[in-house]
Amino acid sequence: MRGRRPVWAAVLGVVVVAASAACSGDEPLTTPDGSTISTTVTRVAEVNIVSADRDFSKTCLAPTPADDAATDPTRIVVTDPALLDALCALGIGDKVTAVTAAPGSVPAYLGPRLSSVPAIGTAPDAAAVSQADADLVLLTPETAASSKPFGSVRSATIPAGDWQEQFQAVADAVGRSEAGRQRLAEFTTEAAKTGRRMDASHTQVSLVRFGEDSETIAGMDTFAGQVLGEIGVQRPGPQRVPDSFPVTSENFREAEGDLIYVSFEGEKGQEHGEEVLLSDEWLGLGASMWKRVLAVDDAVWYDSSGLAAAWLVLNDVKGSLDGNS
């Protein structure tokens, strides 16, 4: 497979273009009776897309109470867009007034509310700082410099850690320690329940990502691998390793599984993936012959890392572990 040209970001692009056209004032396509015609793409290269019609406006969870209302922050600036997932999962995304990052840095899966938060650059000027009017700045060791323009405003550094540790650290920083523990416990309980209900321990799931000119088997330490582990999903023997590894002509069969979730890294990844998914080699895999290959959102399954994204992955698995292409 290596050297071929693996499909999916372009599909997202089609969906986004359709949505953008509607938002820009263009009239949606309709039937003669006036009913709107859906433009959501649901298949790519003969593979069904999981949650193709997902509504990202519903990603964030219900608001959580503060441990102490008297010290509850009301205006939060975040210096690393990755920290926004935790605020989304805590239901307090409406408290975020600015992100010190480049425009477009907020992940789309967090929904329109957080996507519309002003991105004021890594070195915001005085006007942007004044407009943000923060009473708490969340930062990481790598993005600490972006907090300097905020002077004496209270700040909290979120240390490195796995996604659950980072979520709890953010919950602690915004005065929601108890709520954070409860939210993590709710997820763990639901993931385990889902695994039992779907008999996940008896399904071996393969994870394959397509890049511009590559195919990679995702390791168990990837975000998707960790969430599948929480659910109790098994991985094929060769994939039971922490790190991801490339697919070559020699190990091609290691991509096999009872079910294969594929994803695409950008438009070029989708172009390459489409060719591979329609190749004789791929179509000769048992999962492909039995129509047990499904496409998932790479940005959610791999590029993200947080409780809000974990719920999206879990819901994807709920709706697809028993499904076919």
From TrEMBL:
Pfam families: Peripla_BP_2. Its main location: other. Keywords: Signal, Transport. It is found in: Cell envelope. The keyword Transmembrane helix does not apply. It comes from Gordonia alkanivorans CGMCC 6845. GO terms for biological process: iron coordination entity transport. Residues 75-325 form the Fe/B12 periplasmic-binding domain. PROSITE patterns: FE_B12_PBP, PROKAR_LIPOPROTEIN. InterPro entries: ABC_transptr_periplasmic_BD (IPR002491), Bact_iron-sidero_bind (IPR051313). Residues 1-21 form the signal peptide. Belongs to the bacterial solute-binding protein 8 family. GO terms for cellular component: outer membrane-bounded periplasmic space. Gene3D superfamilies: Nitrogenase molybdenum iron protein domain. Transmembrane segments: none annotated. This is ABC transporter substrate-binding protein.
